[in-house]
Write a structure and sequence with these properties.
Elements lengths: L1 H21 L2 E6 L25 E4 L10 E7 L3 E9 L21 E7 L7 E6 L5 E6 L6 H4 E2 L7 E7 L2 E9 L11 E10 L4 E4 L16 E5 L11 E13 L4 E16 L3 E7 L34 H4 L17 E3 L5 E3 L2 E10 L4 E10 L11 E11 L3 E11 L13 E12 L6 E11 L3
Parallel strand pairs: 1-3, 1-13
Antiparallel strand pairs: 2-12, 3-4, 4-10, 5-6, 5-11, 6-7, 7-8, 9-10, 11-12, 11-13, 14-15, 15-16, 16-19, 17-18, 19-20, 20-21, 21-22, 22-23, 23-24
Length: 454
Amino acid sequence: MTKTLCVIAFLFFAYSIFGQINKKSFTVKFISEIPKIDGILDDPVWMNAEGPNNFQQYFPSDSILAKQPTIIKMFSNGSTLFIGLKVLSIGNNWVIPSLERDFRAGGNDNISLMFDTFNDGTNAFLFGINPYGVNREALISGGGETPETDFNTSWDVKWKGESKMFENYYTAEIAIPLTSLKFREGETQWRFQSYRFDMQTNERSVWVKVPQNQSIFSLAFMGDMIFEKPLGKSRTPFALIPYINTMAEKDYLPDTGKTSVKVGGDAKVAIGNGMNLDVTLNPDFSNVEVDDIITNLTRFEVSLPEKRQFFIDNSDLFSSFGNSLDANPFFSRRIGIAVDSAGNTIENRIVGGIRLSGKLNDNWRLGILSIQTDEDKANEIASNNNTMVALQKKVFSRSNISMFFINRQSFQDYDFVEREDEYNRVLGVDYNLASKNNSWTGKFYAHKSFQSDD
């Protein structure tokens, strides 16, 4: 019995040491010089920078080194993270189907960089670039397990990336202001991963090895980036986006005219190192990318992604409950539309809203949302308040328990509103299971809805 226990203890110790030896890491040096971001790595400062190299192949095999080398160098001057890339291949036949920003990686020559700034294995920031210098950024949530729900390219942030093509390779330079990211004050380590698509050799490669049965951007497989100097306070700038919309019309037959003026705007305020406060007043969302045109020949409605910036940051706190296919208690795209008396779906004006979301500390996340919509008596649409409170607690390495409360209620009496439609409330709890190496994943939830006739 004693021998057996000793053998088990030895194997556990050996496994632990082996894991520590094989964990990848690199140092982000502190260098005060600022390179010119033109895509050409000719600034002397890059000679002193270090970074992650020795990429592993993800496809067609996940057990060998990548055949096409990728070289990354990074450094920081305390306010900006600078990244230099050299991406090699067998020729210059780069595959770039589109020059649209926020392109999807599949079917493109490109490289992506992921930063888990809170070291939680659940959320990360992604930045990518292709040989033509087209940029993309995204928010990764839910550990990056499901591309359809855990990858949000509607997120936009200020940064710069340029690239330059040469014979059999391309280079790129990226500058990411630290004000564009959220992180703890005094932090010295982030988790990092990079993946690359090489269409000329049909090879996909990653810095930290990822098994093929896992998503290529899974946050379970990341290395460490260690800052030479501790980071300062995360200082996301205050953002104010006002607008004025005027419209004038004239009917020449009766010689009458009408002029209307619409004023509103959005504001974003950082609270601490991990929280955001979003405020919107009389929004028109005119700066939002238009939805793709979809011809729906089924009897089921189409689920379109949320692109309004007011709803984007920490959107997983509100939208990841239940099952996205048939049991999603909160879908923000429903806010701002309503069904009129003829059964048609029309726009329902948003009067204003407030949204507080983000990390309270290493283990807790909070989301509070309240939006008021306007009444439209001509179309028999009531004024409603839409409120949601979500609380998430991290458990074990990458799992979490989440609780939420949703209330949609009209606080006025309308003749055209049935009693059972005066309010709708949903209360629930979710447990999201994700082991450290992602061998075990699962989701368990229980939700209960309440209506005014209950």
